Amino acid sequence: MFPPRLVLSPIDFSEHSQEALKTAAEMAKAFGSELLLVHAVPVIPRLPSAAEFFHEADYVGALHR
Q1: Terminus of the chain with fewer CB atoms < 10 Å: N or C?
Q2: Dihedrals φ, ψ of 37, to 5°?
């Protein structure tokens, strides 16, 4: 088996993802691989209606809350 050229680690800044990142970084260092982080975010809870596109800032604010 060839050493990996890329190590992928998802991250959502939780404690578990921080631990996974440490492991991924160690693997990347050991193999001389590139480390790629993917920020995982929750699914969009609802799609905006056509009228809400006129109030995009309100919609984005609701997503952040």
Answers
A1: N
A2: -100, 140
Residue 9: name the closest of 1, 44, 28, 41 by CA.
28
3-state helix, strand, coil in the chain (%, to 5): 50, 20, 35
Domain ranges of the chain: 6-64
Residue 27: CB atoms within 10 A of its CB come to: 15
Strand partners, 35: 7
Q: For residue 36, what are the contacts with CB-CB under 8 A and spacing of at least 6?
A: 6, 7, 8, 9
